[in-house]
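Record type: monomer structure entry
Structure origin: computed from sequence
Chain ID: A
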Amino acid sequence: AEYMGRPQGAATLADPGRLVLVWSRAEPSPYGDHTIRTEFMLPELTIRAPALTVAVKAPPFVVHGAAFPMQIVISNRSPQIQSMMLSVAEGEHRLFFFSGVRTSSVQILPHDAFKVVLTLVPLCAGHLRLPRIELSPTREVFIEPFDQGFVLVHPAGATAGAAASQ
């Protein structure tokens, strides 16, 4: 099968084109070796920007035992006020001490952003997954998927120059 799409701009309606399916039997047929070609016109798609986006900002590396900030920014791109429940989950392993909001109900004004800053202290060295951020809209909206990522934690005796070179 091959996909024949057309490039699209920032239009609200997109025509993805058509799907062309070409096939034949693996075994010889008494009716001859025919190749079958079928074209399917794909339906138009409505493209819209997500109402809410989330960005998680943290330094790429830190030192074991040293506090660092992790910033969560929720942006409302819609013309309506958005109500959200925000919670920070530690996961099954306690990798960080942290201070800041653990659970909060927030309302974000139209075309505005809400910022939360957590202070984290890594409890061990290594490539650690940051605490999971959970967002629950109080009404149905589409939230663009996001990955909060990882941070590399150097042992406490490492120098700043050695940490920066990695």
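Annotation 1: Residues 69 and 119 are 5 Å apart (CA to CA).
Annotation 2: The two ends are 45 Å apart (CA to CA).
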